[in-house]
Write a structure and sequence with these properties.
2 domains; two-stranded antiparallel sheet; Arc Repressor Mutant, subunit A; 127 residues; mainly alpha
């Protein structure tokens, strides 16, 4: 299933908020991402209809298995790209912004090569 970049951003944010707080509600997402509550509600409806999240009667959001997998992949891409960019000398501020954009557009092969390079750099640091 192809997931749009905006949906990936929401899934990643849900994952991070759940890891941080143990619970996630639409208002938490709106506050974190700087979006209006109605915009987040529309996005959550689409994610729910796509089978990527569940929402209980109290408004608490949980990732489905498919949603958790997608969120984990996006987070891995973001983290790896951020680390790679910082390692090559990009400021953390710019690395964070660029990783956010890049995580959505790289093909699997390119990402795997970057991941290998990050691993090699880490191994060199540990020696």
């Amino acid at each position: 299933m192809q997931i749009r970049a905006s949906a990936e951003d929401y899934l990643e944010r849900i994952l991070l908020l759940w890891q941080k707080n143990g619970t996630v509600r639409s208002i938490d997402i709106a506050n974190e991402m700087g979006f209006s509550k109605p915009s987040v509600s529309v996005a959550m409806k689409k994610l729910r209809e796509g089978g990527l999240i569940r929402m209980d009667a109290d408004g608490f959001i949980a990732l489905t298995e498919e949603g958790a997998q997608a969120a984990g992949q996006v987070y891995e891409r973001h983290s790896t790209l951020f680390e790679w960019l910082v390692n090559i000398g990009v400021s953390e501020k710019n690395a964070a912004a660029d990783a956010c954009r890049m995580e959505h557009i790289l093909c699997a092969e390119t990402f795997e090569m970057i991941k290998r390079q990050v691993k090699t750099l880490e191994e060199k640091k540990d020696r």
